[in-house]
Amino acid sequence: MGLAGRAALFVAALLLLTAAMATATVWYGAERESERHQHIVARDLTTRFAETVASMINDGYGAVLPSMLERMAARDDIRRLSLRDRQGRIIAEQGDNPEDVGVSTQLASRVNASGHAEVLRSAKRWLAVGAPLVLNGQRVGVAVIIWPPNQFRLDALLALAPLFLFLGCFTLAAIPVAVHFVRKAIAPLDELTRFAEKVAQHGGAAPLILRTGDEFETLAGAFNQMIGRLDASTRRIQEIAFIDPVTQLPNQDWFLRDVDFRLLQAKAPAEAGAVFVFEFQRLAKIMPTLDPEAARDLIKAAAGRLVGATRTVDRAVRSQTIGDDRAAATARFGAFEFAVYAPAITSPADAARFGQHLTVALNQPFDWRGHKLSLGACCGVAMAQREGKGADAIVRHARVALCAAQTAPTRVKVFTQSLDREAIARVTLEREMRGALERNEFRAYFQPKINLATGRIEGAEALARWVRPDRTIIGPQRFIPLAEESGLIGPLSDAIMLDACWKAAGWARKGMPVKMAVNVSALQFRDDRFADHVLQIVQRAGLPPSSLELEITESVAMEDPARALRLIAPLRAAGVRLAIDDFGCGHSSLAALSKLPFDVIKIDQQFIRALDRGDAQAEVIIELILALAGKLNLEVVAEGVERREHADFMAARGCHWVQGFLYGAAVSAADFSEMLRKQAGEGSASAHAA
Ligand code: C2E
Ligand code: CA
Ligand code: CA
Description:
By secondary structure, the protein is α/β, with parallel strands linked by helices. The protein contains 22 helices and 21 strands.
């Protein structure tokens, strides 16, 4: 039962109770009034009867009294008449009911005692009145009349009947009227209640219109305002949760929901489509050089290109018969990561083509604020499956493919299970590497570098090795790329550099100094605090900076020569030597190279290998490099020297240093220390012999 129903019932009950109480009060009052009236009339009549009897006796008509009494007592409205003397003895008595004799006797004695009229009423409601018989001022006896029930009764109650009827009717009429008014009064409350319930269940509702002109209207207005605010906040929250604020593209959460929803709707497995995840690698490189406002603008421009290119490629792929609901959707996943879902793609071959078209379009240089820019996009593709995998898993697959795409010639890769296995293996290796770093399993091994002028080991190249607890040794080719990818290269390089500098300082203290060469990865070189970091390590190890040589590959140094110059300057000032590693592999111009303050050029192993094949061109290049180095006053190291002929060839052309298996592969610190000790012993022995 609603609030209105309960209120109506309550009011009706209240009205009924009031009516009942009023009726009872009136009834009781009427009863009392009627009784009083009876007494007065009966007493009056009895007194007059007594007076009449007295005057009849006085006038000498005492003889007719018995017959008069008899006639009177025969009347229906009188039960008994009785005349008694002062002692209560019957003078004359008439009446049918023998039990009344006792009553008249009792009354007579009471009147005789009190001297005035007395009234008696029985439970059966008859009325008996006794009045004194007074003759010549003397009480001579008592006259008694007994009246049957309800004689002289004032029927006030009957008179009140219309009132009661009115009250009853009023009550009956009042109930529906009261219910109606109560209903009407609280109807807005009902409406508000229903409205609130609706809002609670569905979260939103059309505004509630109440025109009551009272608090209800105000309340409804407040309700509407509240709901309006709630709706706006919900929309804002959804926007924050699902829309990228810079590009206004949906974010990853939204994309995943959308793809999941569309997969549910797909009617056939072929309608599942494909997910493409893009990474804009060039953007990642450019972004740190821009102020925040320009960076946002560039991201917007990149997103615009993605949306435009997707629309074009998607339109070309879709035939006219496919509706707009199967158009491709774009999203921004992260800083430089975007995604496309193309529901119209039906096969991995189509997906690869779609990805390729998009990547090519995205990598076309474009004008941005007067610069020619390219996004450097690569693309990972995963086919969506209607059953089984959710959008989450599909995007994960596309990301696995994206990792592989970074090194793929087309910069596009479609996900396969084997890619997944490789990715899992990489993750496992990465986890193991983290543990290994904590357990100090990464060590510097040392490959001797021979000074061709003296024929002695005067330098060493520190090469990273992972020495597992079971003594197996893992080479850097297996873990350096992954370390660079996962960001572990920082701590790893620090560990190797510190180890190498530490050992070099120790050997120098023992009178066996070597120039220590340490490799620098591209990622380390990207850090602006690189020089500070290196100098700190050298200082910690207690190695003079001039004993340290940093090997930087040609491609890293030449990526941004101006920046390289800036980074290198403090190191040069401190006396650290710098070597260009793997020289001849890159395509840097010699002119550009001459602008960078290097001390050493390391000729890449491939030229020594080429010598073995009798490659005349390699010979020419080696001679050119040596000539150039001579001009620039640089020292030259030949790597990969495995045979005596190589060493002789290099020595004959003025090369300063050689390293390679001819003199020894990289060995542990203990073994290298032993080599140095032996060399020092031979040195002192030959000195003695001299
Ligand atoms: P890299 O700097 O060019 O090092 C020379 C590589 O050639 C080393 O391989 C060395 O063992 C190998 N080698 C030396 N002499 C010969 C020879 O006569 N014949 C042949 N065939 N190979 C020779 P490794 O130790 O496997 O290192 C491979 C690469 O890993 C290094 O190439 C370097 O780029 C990188 N690497 C090694 N240690 C580190 C490190 O601590 N930090 C960084 N960033 N990279 C490192
Ligand atoms: Ca090297
Ligand atoms: Ca090298």
